[in-house]
Amino acid sequence: MSSLVVDTNLSALQALNDLNATDNSMTTAIKRLSSGLKIQTAATGPAQYVISQALESQSNGYNTAIQNAQDGVSMIQTASGALGQISSILQTMDQLALTSANGATQTTTSYTANQAEFKDLLTSIDEIAKTTTFGQQKLLVTGFSGTLQVGAFNKTTQQIKLTITSVTSAKLGLTGTAAVAKSGNITLTTGKVTLTTTVTFTIKVGKTSTTTYTVKVAKGSYTLTTLAAQVNKVAGSKVTASVVALTGATAGKYQLDFTTVATGATAKVVVKAKASGTGTTAATLGLTATKTGTGSGSGSAAITTVTKAQKAITAIQAALKTVDTLASKVGATQNELQAIVANLTVGQQNLQAANSQLVDVNMAQEMTTFSTDQILMQTGVSMLAQAQQAPSLVLKLI
Predict the structure, then answer these.
(1) 153-212, pLDDT tens digit by residue?
(2) Claim to verify: residue 192 and residue 238 sit in the same structural domain
(3) Taking the chain, what is the end-to-end CA distance rounded to the nearest angstrom?
(4) Residues 321-331: pLDDT tens digits?
(5) Looking at the structure, do residues 6 and 57 belong to the same domain, yes or no?
(6) Considering the chain, what percentage of its residues have pLDDT values greater than 90?
(7) Are β-strands 220-222 and 211-217 bridged in parallel, bridged antiparallel, or unpaired?
(8) Do both 164 and 185 map to the same domain?
(9) CA 188: distance to chain centroid?
(10) Per 3-state DSSP, what percentage of the chain is helix, strand, and coil (rounded to 5)?
(11) Do 184 and 289 fall within a single domain?
């Protein structure tokens, strides 16, 4: 009989509370059904929200990393295509050099024709190197070095270093000038070359090449012959020194020459002597002039003679090995990137599935809840109306 009071309608208050709870549940169901999300804000589920944001961030990072790796593959394919063309050109050059080395069947005309084609092929190598770019990035003319980000985090295990070395004709040891510089003091006296200090001969191959050989010769007195012998003793197989008798306008003079194995080019030290006789021994060599400084000689591969063609064969085959090794290296990197893309794709799918379990609403389940709430809302309103009419029963007691 507690409901037969006027000031406080407990039944109506209970119905109202139930109706409010149903309304909140129904509002939540509507939000979830309209958005498709179970976790919409941090207030909906603080812990789930934090986890969801981390998973989403990682998934987005994977997506970007996949794009980065695919861009890297495209860059490598650009470089690989050019390296393949250069390798093909070098194969043709090797055939030309081998033909010119067969001196028994060659004529001046054939040598000239071979050299013309050979020179054009050298130019083609440089043109390919200059025009091989990915966007604005040059890949082969000066070389390329960069880092590919292939993961969602700043970790070295998720970064790949891509390095492509320069493959111009000069870098391959096929063109350029061979130069030699000397340090120390050289004085010439009759029949002798006197080194007052230890002298370092630096033989640098190519105008822009990093191929450098150094030979140190102890101080002492040498003839050109014994000086050449001393150089050969300490230089090993990389540099060969020899005494050459000059001809023509410089007949009667001798010159100390250096030959480097990089291109077969001769780098000449400017130390010339006028002979009183015909030999190069201390007894017959009379040195009357001195000149020290820097000299240079041709470092470009050529096939105009048998000797030059033989040297060119060695240089070309070494260049082929360099290009093919580089192509193999970047090809391996391409395979690595493609494997990373496949792995990241699977990882991204798994992350999205995990995130979906946290934030995506089960539409069938939520629709069932919504339908129940609709019925409860209608019955709640009806019961609230009935509860509000209950105090009127007191009038019958008056």
Answers:
(1) 999 999 999 999 999 998 888 886 544 433 333 444 445 666 666 766 665 544 444 456
(2) yes
(3) 16
(4) 999 999 999 99
(5) no
(6) 36
(7) unpaired
(8) no
(9) 51
(10) 55, 20, 25
(11) yes
Q: Give CA–CA dist 113/14, Å, rounded.
A: 108
Amino acid at 125: I
Strands 159-164 and 186-189: unpaired
Residue with tokens 């006028």: 274
Helix axis angle, 306-359 relative to 46-101, nearest 10°?
170
pLDDT-derived band at 72 (thresholds 50, 70, 90) equals very high
How many other CB atoms are found less than 10 A from the CB of residue 10? 12
* Rounded mean pLDDT, 241-253: 67
Q: Is residue 359 part of a domain?
A: no
Q: How many domains does the chain have?
A: 3
Residue 106: give its domain's CATH number.
Answer: 1.20.1330.10
**What residue numbers bound the domain in which 93 lies?**
53-172+308-348
Task: Write the pLDDT tens digit of every residue in 330-385.
Answer: 999 999 999 999 999 999 999 988 888 888 787 888 788 888 888 888 888 888 88
pTM attached to this predicted model = 0.60
Say what the pLDDT of residue 363 is: 86
CA gap 113, 77 in Å, rounded: 35
Separation in Å, CA 87 to CA 52, 288, 299: 52, 51, 21
Residue 228: inside a domain: yes
Q: How many other β-carbons are positioned within 10 Å of the β-carbon of residue 135?
A: 9
Tokens for 137?
């990035």
Q: What is the DSSP string of 273-305?
A: EE-SSS--STTT--------S-EEEE-S---SS
* Integer Cα distance of 283 and 79 in angstroms: 60
- For residue 364, being part of any structural domain is answered with no
What is the Cα–Cα distance from 258 to 139, expressed in whole angstroms?
A: 34
